[in-house]
Amino acid sequence: MALTLSLVSLLAACSSVSETTRNAMSSITPYKVEVVQGNFVSREQVQALQPGMSRQQVREILGTPLVTSVFHADRWDYVFTIQRQGVEAQNRKLNVFFEGERFVRAEGDEMPSESEFVATLGKPTGKLKVPNLQASEEQLAKFPAAKPKAADAVARDTAQPQRSYPPLEAN
């Protein structure tokens, strides 16, 4: 009997949640972390590549490749992925090919310019308030003047006598 009563009271408690509470709970979405993986390679960087460049020169322009394979030593793969909440994920791939130690060609997705990429990141929502970083004379007068650090070091060195320590091991 007690089991039946407790079961009925639990069921009654579940049904007492109102429709507005359910709607409010369904509109709450968890925060999703922005995930950035790989190297962003811009159109300007790809255009800076010239056939015959060394691997080191290519690395200086594009950065360290995300994928290098023992089985494909003549190819470096640059992959870039960014996932942000409320924005479609961006994926870009670039393959760089070498013959020996010299750059031959690059193949992959059409890379955006740096300004185009920045424009796709979007603007922050809400109004940002930029604080005033300039202190007035009145605000500065509230704080005591700082002593010069070099003078403090000289005064400290002259105030303490030199110490002489005995040797660590007895002779």
UniProtKB/TrEMBL annotation:
Family matches, as InterPro entries: BamE (IPR026592), BamE-like (IPR037873), BamE_dom (IPR007450)
Molecular functions (GO terms): protein-macromolecule adaptor activity
Compositional bias ranges of the Low complexity kind: 144-153
Pfam families in UniProt: BamE (PF04355)
GO biological process: Gram-negative-bacterium-type cell outer membrane assembly; protein insertion into membrane
Subcellular location: Cell outer membrane
Keyword Signal belongs to the record: yes
Outer membrane protein assembly factor BamE domain location: 38-107
Presence of the UniProt keyword Glycoprotein in the record: no
Domain of life of the organism encoding this protein: Bacteria
Region (Disordered): 144-171
Keywords: Cell outer membrane, Membrane, Signal
Any Gene Ontology CC annotation: Bam protein complex
Role noted for this protein: Part of the outer membrane protein assembly complex, which is involved in assembly and insertion of beta-barrel proteins into the outer membrane.
Oligomeric and partner information: Part of the Bam complex.
Record family assignment: Belongs to the BamE family.
HAMAP family: OM_assembly_BamE
Protein name according to UniProt: Outer membrane protein assembly factor BamE
Gene for this chain: bamE
